[in-house]
Amino acid sequence: MTEWMKLLSLTKPVIQAPMAGGLVTPVLAAAVSNEGALGSLASGYLSSDMLEKQIVDMQQLTDGAFQVNVFVPESRKEPDEGNIQTWKNRIPFAEQAPPFSSEEEEWEDFHKKISIILKHNVRACSFTFGIPPDETIQALKKNGCCLIGTATVPQEAIMLEERGMDIIVLQGSEAGGHRGSFLPVSGEAALGLMSLIPQAADAVSVPVIAAGGIADRRGVQAAHCLGAQGVQVGTPFLMCEQCEASETYKGELKRARGTDTRLTSLFSGKPARGIVNQWMKEQQAEEANALPYPLQNTLTKPMRKQAAREKDSGYMSLWAGQSVGMLNGTADVKSLLAELCRT
Amino acid sequence: MTEWMKLLSLTKPVIQAPMAGGLVTPVLAAAVSNEGALGSLASGYLSSDMLEKQIVDMQQLTDGAFQVNVFVPESRKEPDEGNIQTWKNRIPFAEQAPPFSSEEEEWEDFHKKISIILKHNVRACSFTFGIPPDETIQALKKNGCCLIGTATVPQEAIMLEERGMDIIVLQGSEAGGHRGSFLPVSGEAALGLMSLIPQAADAVSVPVIAAGGIADRRGVQAAHCLGAQGVQVGTPFLMCEQCEASETYKGELKRARGTDTRLTSLFSGKPARGIVNQWMKEQQAEEANALPYPLQNTLTKPMRKQAAREKDSGYMSLWAGQSVGMLNGTADVKSLLAELCRT
Questions:
Q1: Cβ-defined contact of B198 to A215 (cutoff 8 Å)
Q2: What is the pLDDT of residues A119-141, one digit of tens each?
Q3: What would the pLDDT profile of B234-264 be if each residue is shown by its tens digit?
Q4: What's the complex ipTM?
Q5: Domains of chain A, CATH where assigned
Q6: What family classification does the UniProt entry report for this protein (chains A, B) (predicted)?
Q7: Which chain B residue is nearest to residue A156, measuring alpha carbons?
Q8: Nearest to A322 among B191, B226, B325 (CB)
Q9: Contact across the interface for A188 and B187, Cβ inside 8 Å
């Protein structure tokens, strides 16, 4: 057992990936924590009130450690009004989208969420899309909270360690969902775990965790050989009966092969890996012109909601990693974790 | 020791990647074979006379097994004359390029090379960019030649096994140089080894070999955990004193980090991973309009030659995998293989 596992009283070196957008509920995350792995709540698209409710529920469902993941707001460029109008015309139901949040509002939301995490003494907190401000880091550390950063290149890992992160999740090009990059990295330069883990492990002294394309014990053992002290697993948890992903989404996950995914910015404005569907095909030529995050995300929200209601996988975001071809059907958290940790 | 190693009398489960374009000489490949790994000659850009000379030299330098890699010609689409003219105007020194070879000429060259491989009883033959014709496969098998195919997705691996390949090299998105795909796979759908190896290993029963981003023992051991019976290593051999890569190229390899590479079709018309340089930056917007292989390759040949003469890395093809950030400086074949196989 390694130091980071002791710190969080874990018996399994596995983090359930914090998948935002209603995919993770306290039921799923608590099932993970109750097996001795690290369950994760995803605050990214939750209101702070909803986050607080989830934390309270979570603490009733498990005595184990869990983390809350928080998105770090980014500085915005001035949006191009003409391009916004173009996308408003192009995206179905965009007229029903809520107003864009300002950068100031995002920071306010960020700080509210941090206060809730502090108030409820959450054991671990992870960050995506950047490095939190120093006062946040100090406040959480003072509270005994374990800090987890997300890196996609060795340079990001070095920066996260310098700023005080206790653990670094290394997200390989194989990973489903949003890329957590905060330094510019193009899709075709995205590092596969086979290259990323040893290079990042050599560059930092804190424990590194491998994320991306890991679906069974083979990936866990390989990550260990490469220098990771644990793994973060996402897509395989989506197929668990404890996961609230829709049947439409689960059906696509079951059907898809590893080569059916690609990176796209068409849903949110930030590159994320998902199963190629109608929306991605229709707008492929406009990929490079997507609005910056979170504007594109705000405008596609009603389209995605409508698609979910109509069970139309063509216009939902079907986030999935390259291990999607290894999923055989419904699993449950206990058996998935047992497979991952089988020696 | 596994069956494929016994078949080729190897003591190390490592294949030196057949890197075309003058990078591999009999001196390098024989040094590999003499250490009990599989040395490889790359016939892709050699005349059949030159290939024969290299095989004869090789057989004088080693008693160990080696392979010859052969490119499988592809059926061409009718080229767009307007686009050819555009690139002739755009590519420096394109007016000095030799005439385009026809598909017929490429097949003639392919068959000549196979005859030479048969004549000299080469122990193994690998193929890139496709599946060779059945009569070629049968002739080589009759001669006791071990056949190695190259796959980038599980479906290609299945097809290669069905057509009689004895071993399949799985090329992950991390790999440097040309992608060996023969089914359509976009760059952002390219599978990392963490996902590719288990999915392909489950899909075929012949041994699979992992290629891409492997630079030290950690990668070799990880590949093994994922289900590979060996590894194919390219970029690290370029830094060996036995490698004929120019000092300019070696300097760029030493300097580059893993994130400095990307896939580009701007040199040859086929996606290949290399260190981003001036030519790739200048023409980035035209990436999607590159001429089909081998036309783009033919037109950039004088530019690359001139750049090599002038030691100008901006216009050379600087093929490199994502492990390039792990290279520390000049190595030699013996110490590199010892590191890869260290337990």
A1: yes
A2: 999 999 999 999 999 999 999 99
A3: 999 999 999 999 999 999 999 999 899 999 9
A4: 0.96
A5: 3-81+103-245+326-340 (3.20.20.70)
A6: Belongs to the nitronate monooxygenase family. NMO class I subfamily.
A7: B259
A8: B191
A9: yes
